[in-house]
Amino acid sequence: MITLRVLIFLPSAYKSNRALLALIHAKLSAKTCTKVGFAKYRNLHMYHPTTRVLAVLELLQTHGRMSGAEIAERLEVDVRTARRYIEMLQDLGIPVAAERGRYGAYSLGQGYKLPPMMFTDDEATALTLGLLAARRLGLADAAPAVESALAKVERVMPGALRGRVRSLADTIALDLRQPNIAPPSEVMRALSLAAQGQHRVRMRYQSAENEVTERDFDPYGLAFRSQRWYVSGYCHLRRGLRSFRLDRVLEVTPSEMHFERPARFDVMAHLADSMKQMPRKHAVEVFIYAPLEQVELQLPEDAFLLEPQADGVLMRGRTDDLTWLAQHLSRMSYTFEIRQPDDLRTALREHAQRLLAMAETRLAPA
User: Does pLDDT of 338 surpass 80?
Assistant: First the structure.
């Protein structure tokens, strides 16, 4: 494991990061050897690394309060092992408070602050890839912020790790198409904070027809989809779930009014379903005689609702362009039946005639 030059403040008894690492390592070694014997220690130690004990500190500082089960899930260990990590930190004088009972949890003592400690190779790689992806997500202020963050991270890295991180930044290309219009960063920050805290906002929004409206809105979550940023939640003006493009949000005013987000609300799933059912000119139904997983590979992503049935898949949805749909259907490898509208049959027939005409066309030799 390669660590960054450590940015850490410890209790007065442990004035260097090496001291803390050595103590944790010694405790792990002693306890493990005592319980399983030296012969098994080498393999078992791989599942109880010192970095996981330090990771408990990061989790508690980030989340404030976590149960033993939550810590165990994050570290991919059992609850008993997570409890042992907590006890080890307490033995080292780090003020980890334990609340007993069914809903008990752990938290750092009030006022105790622990700056970021260390990055392993995998963590540095994940951080770099995340910053590179942020460049492509179309945030108005992302590009300079990404460059600044990468430069700061690199400054504190050991030489070997710095070289590996730079190789990622210089050679990796991500297939994330940038949106045509970048949403303002302040809009995203305001809505994400409101969604996290479950606080209602007052929002001014400009529609595609340039109509400006104001509404009270409970933001449930934000999502990046089809090259655009969206926010989904409960709209008090329309009295129902709605999704809005962030680049059309003119102003967001937070309030102290609290709302309750529906349990297990999936913003991406809601956004996908709402896009499939957007009001468009033509209602479409096509039955495709093929398994669902094959149909999904041959149709535009999330363009239509697909309902598995006994002999195949029923495709339902709406479109403004029947010629476009006829072109996609003509590419399918499976038999299909158009149920509605009749105009789609006409569009498919006309497309087939164009293809036949092109097949018969012969260019005169030069």
Answer: yes
